[in-house]
Amino acid sequence: MSSALRVANLKKSYGDLAAVNDISFDVQRGEVFALLGPNGAGKTTTIEILEGFLRRDQGTVEVLGVDPGDRQHLRWLRDRIGVVLQELAVESFFTVRQVLERNAGFYPHPRPVDEVIELVGLSEKGDAKVKKLSGGQQRRLDIGLGIVGNPELLFLDEPTTGLDPAARRTTWELIRLLASEGTTVLMSSHYMDEVEALAQRVAVLSRGQIAALGSTASLGGRDTSEAAIRFTLPIGVAVGDLPIAPSRVVGRVVEVRTSDELMVLHELTGWALERHVALAGLIVARETLEDIYLALTRSDRDGSDGKTP
């Protein structure tokens, strides 16, 4: 696959503050890529440079094969990208349909407005004025405005903020649909379950630098970290009766930490079957994406160097 985005040695400073300090990554066409980081980590600056709204100091940036900082390409680029910000200024006295029809007119090959209204779950609100929409419905309209131009590349900034659980899942399905049709998506989100559900790869920014870059499954080595196997100790069974020594016991909840969960599970379940006892609540858990994210960005929160003492 060819790259939709290429970033190499990107730098941007505000006075003495290095907001973005020598970062590099690429995003393939049709990929859903998440750019994560706490406030002040350089995420917004990076995205605004990619969108062509902010000039960089140093480095190379290509968006759909052109430099977003080159003004001669700006109109061409605007026709091919969609942007969903956290808040969009939309005329409150227009209807949903009017707003979408107006914006569709800015693009050479827009999606049909009725299709967009259905995709974002506003079929019953097409003729409602924007000021009559709930916060969640306005957020759906924001997304509709981002996709009405049928973009090759879509920037999504916190796409499901303010949405109820059902609307969040509808938005997830829409993002998956767009990606399946070939749209490249660069998203930011503070919901790690959302990132894990949607993104193929993730870059985590911390203090203007990339702290980790990789697939959601392997970020920070989470795919090779120890697994925690937990279950409730069966009635009438003592801890010493277990075939494997536990790492921790809290009340009757037993935890075994291991790097070979398959073998440990085999021993535990085989032992339980032989004795006709149940291992109630049996689960296998690894570090979550949120665990990894919090560890990678700890220095942003507490001012430390990010290293474990």
How would you characterize the overall build of this protein?
- The chain is an alpha/beta fold.
- The protein has ten helices and 13 strands.
- Helices cover 30% and strands 26% of the residues.
- Helix 3 (96-104) packs across helix 4.
- It starts with a strand and ends in a 7-residue tail after the last helix.
- The model is unreliable at 305-309 (pLDDT under 50).
Name a few traits of the molecule.
alpha/beta; 13 strands; Rossmann fold; disordered C terminus; four-stranded antiparallel beta sheet; globular; 309 residues
What is Rg?
Answer: 24 Å
Distance between the termini: 42 Å
Tally of separate helices: 10
Strand content: 25-35%
Order of helices and strands: EEEHEHEHHHEHEHEEEEEHEHH
- Give the tally of structural domains: 2
CATH-defined fold name of the largest domain? Rossmann fold
Which blocks of ≥5 consecutive residues have pLDDT under 50?
A: 305-309
Mean of pLDDT: 91
Can you say what the CATH homologous superfamily of the largest domain is? P-loop containing nucleotide triphosphate hydrolases
Class by SSE composition = alpha/beta
Protein topology:
Elements: E1 3-14, E2 17-28, E3 32-36, H1 43-51, E4 58-63, H2 74-78, E5 81-84, H3 96-104, H4 113-119, H5 135-147, E6 153-157, H6 165-180, E7 184-188, H7 192-198, E8 201-206, E9 209-215, E10 227-232, E11 248-250, E12 253-258, H8 261-275, E13 283-285, H9 289-296, H10 298-302
Parallel strand pairs: 3-7, 3-8, 5-6, 6-7
Antiparallel strand pairs: 1-2, 1-4, 8-9, 10-12, 10-13, 11-12
